[in-house]
TrEMBL record:
This is AAA family ATPase. It comes from Ureibacillus suwonensis. Residues 46-164 form the ORC1/DEAH AAA+ ATPase domain. It comes from the Bacteria. Signal peptide: none annotated.
């Protein structure tokens, strides 16, 4: 039997056939796969899946829904769209408009022996009814990922369009992030009583470890429990990030070519794989923009003395604090204050008060959410930081910027 290669086992950007981990939602005792199957088999209901970024929401849909039956779109696809059904029709290849012609031939008679033909032409366009019937006939499911990227008014329109469609047994799944406005779906009174709600909980350490342990077993290699635990911690609840770290560790160790490797226990190589994983992450400019902060209009920003000998302004310090150990995906203002105090050489002049932290985080929040989606990496809400993209936090910890 042919030996598997590392990029067949660890697949950060596609369905992980050999390292898929089935999880149960707490309080229910059922797997997420079972819950999604139940939702899709309940006529007249819309399915709403909410969970942190890079936690396997789309992969869950790929596991449950046959590839040929899954029609994927994202909220970004509707940013400039005038008609929801037009976008969906275009995705499945239904002609948006066209012309139908039919020719009728009349046989000749004794008085007029020549055959005569008449052509009729009719213009048509794809509409809601045609799309719904096409989906039902072909057992298709619309999976609308990253719903939060659609403008608010577009979200409301999509919710309105789906309301009638699901009543006619059109199957749809809407995927979004927590801590982002999802009022258009979950708090929409028109959809009340017609929603299947699935909240994806953050991955636990043991679940992430299973990816590494199972995956390396597939390659005939044992990884120490200690290293697998450290990888799980750095993966920040993200199975996608865990897949990337495992793949890059395999590349650094040359596992596919070196058959003498039977066990992995080198922590230095692991840290090297962390840095290697950040190379192609697109956050260099994001970090620069956040460190720059809002415009100072020519005034020099105050800098504080750090214990490592550097001097840094408040925005540089905020990012350093977010990146400190332990890596976590949410921080309160009190936790931020504690981390900042650990970074600074504290004296009466250098102290940074909580009000300053709050104001500065709000300014960073405003910068992010007035920029493109790639810059929207964390959210400042209710005196709490919520990391929306764990890959950004990983880059902040291990990237060079």
């Amino acid at each position: 039997m042919r030996k598997l290669r590392s990029n067949e086992v660890f697949k950060p950007g596609s369905f992980p056939k050999y390292t898929y981990v089935s999880r149960k939602s707490s309080g229910f005792g059922f797997t997420y796969e079972t819950r999604l199957k139940q939702a899709l088999n309940t006529p007249g209901y819309l399915t709403s899946i909410i969970g942190p970024s890079k936690t396997g929401k789309t992969v869950l849909c790929e596991k449950v829904i046959e590839p040929q039956n899954m029609v994927s779109l994202t909220g970004s696809d509707f940013k400039n769209a005038k008609d929801f059904w037009e976008v969906v029709a275009n995705k499945v290849g239904l002609p948006l408009e066209g012309e139908y012609s039919e020719t009728t031939v009349l046989k000749g008679t004794d008085n007029s022996p020549e055959d005569k033909s008449f052509s009729t032409r009719e213009k048509y366009g794809s509409n809601k009814d045609k799309v719904i019937e096409f989906f039902k006939k072909n057992n298709l499911v619309l999976v609308l990922d990253d719903f939060h990227y659609a403008p608010e008014e577009v979200q409301l329109d999509i919710a309105y369009q789906l309301k009638d469609a699901i009543r006619r047994e059109f199957k749809a799944v809407v995927i979004s992030l927590p801590h982002r406005a999802d009022d258009a779906i979950r708090k929409n009174p028109d959809l009340s009583g017609r929603l299947n709600l699935i909240n994806i909980e953050p991955w636990q350490e043991d679940e992430l470890k299973e990816i590494a342990i199972t995956g390396f077993e597939q390659l005939g290699i044992k990884i120490s429990d200690e290293l697998a635990s450290k990888m799980a911690l750095e993966s920040l609840t993200s199975p996608q990030l865990m897949q990337s770290i495992c793949l890059n560790l395999s590349l650094i160790l040359n596992i596919d070519e070196d058959e003498s490797i039977k066990e992995i226990n080198d922590e230095k190589k692991l840290e090297e794989s962390y840095r290697f994983t950040t190379i192609n992450l697109p956050y260099q400019e994001v970090v620069k923009k956040l460190m720059a902060g809002p415009s100072t209009r020519g005034q020099e920003r105050k800098k504080y003395q750090l214990k490592n000998g550097e001097k840094a302004d408040i925005y540089h310090i905020l990012l350093k604090a977010i990146a400190q150990n332990p890596p976590v995906v949410s921080l309160s203002v009190d936790e931020m204050k504690e981390r900042i105090d650990q970074l600074l050489v504290i004296n009466s002049k250098e102290k940074i008060e909580k009000n300053k932290i709050r104001d500065s985080l709000q300014k960073l929040h405003d910068i992010m959410f007035s920029s493109e989606p790639i810059y929207q990496v964390f959210e400042w809400k209710d005196n709490q930081i919520f990391i929306l993209d764990p890959l950004f936090l990983f880059f902040l910890r291990w990237g060079t910027c």
